[in-house]
Automatic annotation (TrEMBL), chains A, C:
<dbReference type="InterPro" id="IPR050861">
    <property type="entry name" value="Dihydroxyacetone_Kinase"/>
</dbReference>
<dbReference type="Pfam" id="PF02733">
    <property type="entry name" value="Dak1"/>
</dbReference>
<keyword id="KW-0418">Kinase</keyword>
<dbReference type="GO" id="GO:0004371">
    <property type="term" value="F:glycerone kinase activity"/>
</dbReference>
<dbReference type="GO" id="GO:0019563">
    <property type="term" value="P:glycerol catabolic process"/>
</dbReference>
<dbReference type="InterPro" id="IPR004006">
    <property type="entry name" value="DhaK_dom"/>
</dbReference>
<protein>
    <submittedName>
        <fullName>Dihydroxyacetone kinase</fullName>
    </submittedName>
</protein>
<feature type="domain" description="DhaK">
    <location>
        <begin position="7"/>
        <end position="328"/>
    </location>
</feature>
<keyword id="KW-0808">Transferase</keyword>
UniProtKB/TrEMBL annotation, chains B, D:
<dbReference type="GO" id="GO:0047324">
    <property type="term" value="F:phosphoenolpyruvate-glycerone phosphotransferase activity"/>
</dbReference>
<dbReference type="GO" id="GO:0019563">
    <property type="term" value="P:glycerol catabolic process"/>
</dbReference>
<feature type="domain" description="DhaL">
    <location>
        <begin position="7"/>
        <end position="206"/>
    </location>
</feature>
<comment type="subunit">
    <text>Homodimer. The dihydroxyacetone kinase complex is composed of a homodimer of DhaM, a homodimer of DhaK and the subunit DhaL.</text>
</comment>
<comment type="pathway">
    <text>Polyol metabolism; glycerol degradation.</text>
</comment>
<dbReference type="InterPro" id="IPR050861">
    <property type="entry name" value="Dihydroxyacetone_Kinase"/>
</dbReference>
<protein>
    <recommendedName>
        <fullName>phosphoenolpyruvate--glycerone phosphotransferase</fullName>
        <ecNumber>2.7.1.121</ecNumber>
    </recommendedName>
</protein>
<keyword id="KW-0418">Kinase</keyword>
<dbReference type="InterPro" id="IPR036117">
    <property type="entry name" value="DhaL_dom_sf"/>
</dbReference>
Length: 331, 213, 331, 213
């Protein structure tokens, strides 16, 4: 893997330097160098925080911005931020109305957030959490509390961020974000692995000519390894995992988010989306708003994820709210 | 001798550091098989940070554990920060008032570390985590303490218990952490955390045996 | 190269289907399926058109939108659109005020645009052109009319599009776009090649452990093959090619655009930008506005390009004008 | 015979199509060395489109050239659309009123195609493009016409001239198109367009020779 980097141990800090310089109109540094906050957070709103390991651009810091997250805690590559970073993110985001911490279901994040919430409480900051678990392939439905959070987190942040921006109180923000993730299902297909910069070789294998259905954002294996299929077949496979699980039904209006995993050319995401939209239409499911692009990646993994979120009037309004961050700009 | 001075414990910590550094690649490989391959890197980063900050300083065994735990906790994050951070900090607290460390004190310290861990994770023996190494190691020390065994003998027994515990993870199905999503696919390889825990305990025991002789 | 596609011969058409569905708020289809136009083009403005081969997302159709290009002609992968597609793009963009065709210096594009301009003239549409030639590594300065157009095209579209939106007449739009490209210099470093979907194997090689300095957007070789360097060294190499060529000098205010070539993780672009910004600062060159991201790619090539544009008051105003397209959203 | 009927020309076009289809991979490889590797694909796409639309239709030699040229021009784009589109369309126009095609008519047609091309590109002999194949081929036909040589002999001579022309590109430095940016690095390999042009002219000549016999 030829990379643009210096010492791999410094890649997160150096990336943050560049990110802060490149997006100084949207974000700013804090005293904790592993915490990024939004510029000009409106007073008196509920703070919205996220955080996670690095290497998933635009996630997580790319969703800090107007009407989205107010702060994010930054971890090492594919590794949870420290409890201290979460705590400092809470402090950076808190405007006296409490903080909604919206993050993904990984054991490191769970532990660090839990500790940070405890510490925050001691310091008088109320933090409530929503844990994204949209990845259908990561556990059976009966154990959905075990499921990983993947690209559906983007929709959770969009909804939670918009609710806070519109003046929702902490419980309302938490309820909206929880509804968003409860209404959301995702699945990923991996075509080629990624490499941790400091390790230097891929930590898992996808044999040429095969694909990994249900892959996680760190290469966690999924539900099946099968021969590499064409776009139409992949689309069908993804729709067949996601649609019956929720289940999405004829007449439903949904957000459809197709995200690349990193190195797959964006051209191919459009080919995939075209197939997916046709399959959904056949089922009577209407895409109210599509998002297609690199929304949640895993360095140079190849492949894509499909995420569907069932909409109601509240979610529509929140999804339609303008937003401005590096990863999501919407008028 | 059946005790060593808490204040002489720096070399134990340094041996633990060396143990992790020497196994950085290996731990990465083990984690790569059913996890994300970063365990060696994560552990090495924390332990090496400790080394670079404290190599020139004087500190006792329990102070060293405390400082190492705090670095893991506050600067490494991931799963290892809270997990090893808690184990080491809680073990240190349990022993910090002792001038001399003997089998009983060490057993209590590690029991305390394990208890602290179990407050934050639900993993039990059999779930394919580092608990499978730590729990039998602690139990072995506790038994030696009851039997009044020589410290060195107790440490050698503990190493064996830790090693057996580590090896027991091979045939287990992971129930927690990243690899738990693999279900049956997680069988057949060691757990990364169980492996690093065994390395740490072994390095610690060997350094103590040297100190005792 | 594991891809998400069906028949490689259909990839451009299928990509267009997905693109049009995903961005129906910004773009729409035309009678020529290889022509994409902006929605709601304001009446009475000068039309702005671009076009080029496919596989460079967001270029070219990703820059069709508000205050940017009004239409784009779409070619096969890495191959110029037909003269007919350029002609139909002119028709789609023309509001009776003439059309500025802003494109890149490739022989296919030159021929097809020239023919289309001739045909447009016969049909009463005045088209004037600006040909981007920002790629320093593609020819010596004395032969700069031979240089390729690369990521600097994005800034040419931004400036030309803004000038047209602000009511500039055809000559003013052409003059602004020409000034933009005259003030712009780029260089690319390639770390890994790309593969034409229908060919199936990379059509050039970058040996592991080496990098190609001055690589073109289709893998055209550059000025040197050297050993893979770290981010600081790459940054220095890029700055040392671009800065003296214009030359950019102490006190200059510039746009700095760092674009990935496709598969390089965005994280690494920030690491690179951090180094570049420091080098420019040392030289007294001030980055007035940075753009860092995947702005002009070559499928799954790895590597990055650096583009600098010297600003004056007019260019500042035009660069600051809001824009809304798939590839560039700016408030 | 020294002429063939223009209206019998379908098989010539079909032979040209087969020539390109059979060399799709090869042309891609040649273009890949100093270009972007798509020449075989581009040409094959256009020629195969022509085949699929016209295989079941009747058409004359000049009508076929015209239709093929128009498809390349209007549906393929790239460099090949305008280049081969112009050559074929202009050649067709120059011969469309002829019932019988002889050496002289063919020479005039191809000269006309080349002249049309040179209105849109500046490449001359020696610049490492398809002009290096086409120009000597046309010249050879013109000489045969002046000398009153047999049509088949003229065609064989033209094939040789085209082949020599193609081969001459090997040691040239590219002056136009994608590979021109390589400078000296473009030496040592054939030009892709010169190669496809030789394939087309050879297939055309062979089919004509068959028609003549
Ligand atoms: N919830 C948990 N309970 C107990 N141990 C865990 C848990 N999650 C992870 N572990 C331990 O952590 C090890 C993996 O550590 P590491 O690779 O550093 O972190 P990560 O899984 O975040 O990449 C596992 O092998 C396991 O022993
Ligand atoms: N400006 C030009 N003048 C003459 N011939 C050209 C020119 N540009 C390209 N060619 C011819 O086209 C060939 C390449 O064709 P092709 O690979 O299909 O197009 P592209 O270069 O756009 O990928 C070259 O080998 C050369 O013979
Ligand atoms: Mg990890
Ligand atoms: Mg791990
Ligand atoms: Mg081409
Ligand atoms: Mg080519």
């Amino acid at each position: 893997m030829p990379r643009i980097m210096n010492n791999p141990d410094d890649i997160v800090d150096e990336m943050l330097n560049g990110f802060l310089k490149a997006h100084a109109d949207i974000v700013e540094a804090t005293d904790n160098k592993r915490v990024v906050k939004a510029k000009n957070i409106p007073a008196d709103k509920v703070g919205v925080v996220t955080g996670g390991g690095s290497g998933h651009k635009p996630a997580f810091i790319g969703y800090v911005g107007k009407n989205l997250c107010d702060a994010a805690a930054v971890g090492e590559i594919c590794s949870s931020p420290t409890a201290a970073a979460f705590l400092d993110s809470f402090k950076a985001a808190d405007q006296g109305q409490g903080v909604a911490c919206l993050y993904g279901n990984y054991s490191g994040d769970n532990m660090n957030v839990k500790m940070a919430v405890k510490m925050a409480k001691k310091q008088g900051i109320t933090v409530k959490t929503v844990v994204a678990n949209d990845d259908v392939a990561s556990a059976p439905k009966e154990q959905c509390e075990k499921r990983r959070g993947v690209a559906g987190e983007v929709l959770m942040w969009k909804v939670g961020g918009a609710k806070a921006a519109k003046g929702g109180n902490l419980d309302e923000v938490i309820a909206a974000a929880q509804k968003a993730i409860d209404n959301t299902r995702s699945v990923g297909i991996g075509l080629a692995p990624c490499t941790l910069p400091a390790v230097g070789h891929p930590n898992f294998e996808i044999k040429p000519g095969t694909m990994e259905v249900g892959i996680g954002h760190h290469g966690e294996p999924g539900i099946a390894v099968c021969k590499l299929e064409n776009a139409a077949e992949m689309a069908k496979r993804m729709v067949d995992v996601v649609v019956p699980d929720y289940p999405f039904e004829a007449g439903d209006e949904v957000v459809a988010l197709v995200s690349g995993l990193g190195a797959t050319p964006v051209m191919e995401l459009y080919v995939l989306y075209d197939e997916i939209e046709c399959l959904l239409k056949e089922k009577g499911i209407h895409v109210y708003r599509p998002y297609v692009g690199n929304y949640f990646t895993s360095m140079e993994m190849m492949g894509a994820t499909l995420t569907l979120m069932k909409l109601d009037d509240e979610l529509k309004e929140l999804i339609d709210t303008p937003a401005n961050s590096m990863g999501l700009k919407q008028n | 001798m059946n005790t060593f001075k808490n204040k002489d414990g720096k070399q134990i910590l340094m041996a633990m550091v060396k143990g992790i550094q020497a196994n950085k690649e290996y731990l990465g490989e083990v984690d790569g098989l059913i996890g994300d391959g970063d365990h060696g890197m994560n552990m090495n980063k924390g332990f090496t940070l400790f080394e670079s900050r404290f190599a020139d300083k004087e500190f006792s065994f329990t102070e060293g554990l405390e400082e190492l735990g705090t670095i893991l906790f506050a600067e490494i994050g991931g799963s290892m920060g809270p997990i090893y951070g808690t184990i080491l900090n809680d073990a240190a607290s349990a022993g910090e008032d002792e001038e001399d460390i003997d089998v009983k004190v060490l057993a209590e310290m590690l029991r305390s570390g394990l208890a602290g861990l179990q407050e934050i994770v639900q993993a039990q023996v059999g779930d394919k985590t580092l608990v499978d190494t730590l729990e039998p190691a602690v139990k072995s020390l506790e038994e030696s303490a009851v039997l009044g065994e020589e410290f060195s003998l107790a440490l050698n027994k503990m190493k064996e218990a830790a090693t057996d515990g580590r090896d027991s993870t091979k045939d287990m199905v992971a129930k927690f952490g990243r690899s738990s999503r693999l279900g049956e696919r997680s069988k057949g390889v060691l757990d990364a955390g169980a492996t690093s825990c065994c390395i740490i305990l072994t390095a610690m025991a060997d350094a103590m045996i040297e100190l005792l002789s």
